[in-house]
Amino acid sequence: MDRLLVTGGAGFIGSNFVHYLMAHTDARVTVLDKLTYASTKESLEGLPEDRVKLVVGDIADAAVVDPLVAEHDAVVHYAAESHNDNSLHDPSPFIQTNIMGTFVILEAVRKHGVRLHHISTDEVYGDLELDDPKRFTEDTPYNPSSPYSASKAGSDHLVRAWVRSFGVQATVSNCSNNYGPWQHIEKFIPRQITEVIDGRRPKLYGSGENVRDWIHADDHSSAVWTILNKGAIGETYLIGADGERSNLEVVQQILKHFGRPEDDFDHVNDRAGHDLRYAIESGKLRSELGWEPKFQDFEDGLGRTIEWYQEHQDWWRPAKDATEAAYAAKGQ
Ligand code: NAD
Ligand code: TDX
Q: Quick one: which of 140, 126, 25, 132 has its CA closest to 73?
């Protein structure tokens, strides 16, 4: 695992993974990223130039992907359109990148016999009732709700089929909601943090009772590195850190951090088809591969993330006005 091709490595979780690799391994990395609205080169600033190279290109372009894959020991495939709300507005890029792009990656790793790790989401399993004692496991049937999660489910099925039909050397992981540095401010936690920094009120979709299972992006990275090195080919691993919180609880925690009253938020229009609750049982990854999350205390991890957004206003401020204008147009 010396030479890694990381697709989507300029986005939120992909860039966290590249930072993780530089800090904890000797790997050399090529990032293949289209640099969509969701990413910036700055997320990779300060990394050693002799170990990290950025190629700007589209994962759905076989002429770009094929020769790059041939030069690497493994592909870690993060690139995707990732925001549920955008997929409700225009599903087309989600089908193109998440399904067609994954198909192009699969054909290249098949041709060149290169190892693949495919990054996916717990949203492929649909949602749970608030009081359901069960959590998602590797055996939970697929039941995606949104165009985004359906496109990710489609990509997972393609990977599994390429393993079984063509002997592609691949693993899959489905992770819960990530938080941490370099997350685009369209997403829930950084949106609320930056709203409060700008003196406005956080915005909860609907009642705020929806539950997400939060994991720090650094723990997602350590899990992926563990699977790449110790995972069994053809297997799927669920990644989660027992971080279930309602959206209301998260907003109140952010307000508390800033010393603001805990009811100082607005309810805004709900998301169409809004999944109620996600929850991950990550026992397979822990018992079979020995992985443990480092950020066990969500409130501590959230506090550090708030501080990161306070200290990196140059990074997120260019996207803020357009992001909020798009939400305002939808009453959100
Ligand atoms: P992100 O939107 O921040 O980053 C996605 C990256 O992919 C961006 O850098 C973007 O430029 C790039 N990209 C998009 N289309 C591309 C294309 N056609 N060719 C090349 N690059 C392209 O998303 P993220 O939150 O970092 O998610 C990364 C991966 O992790 C996705 O596969 C997502 O489904 C998965 N995931 C995310 C979460 C989460 O909480 N954010 C949880 C579980 C799984
Ligand atoms: O302003 C907001 N107010 C609000 O209440 C926003 C932006 C969101 N929400 C709610 C919707 C969700 O219940 O917060 C929750 C989290 O929303 P998002 O950050 O949009 O994440 P989610 O839809 O849960 O999906 C995320 O986790 C799984 C990632 O964006 C996906 O890429 C990943 O697969």
A: 25
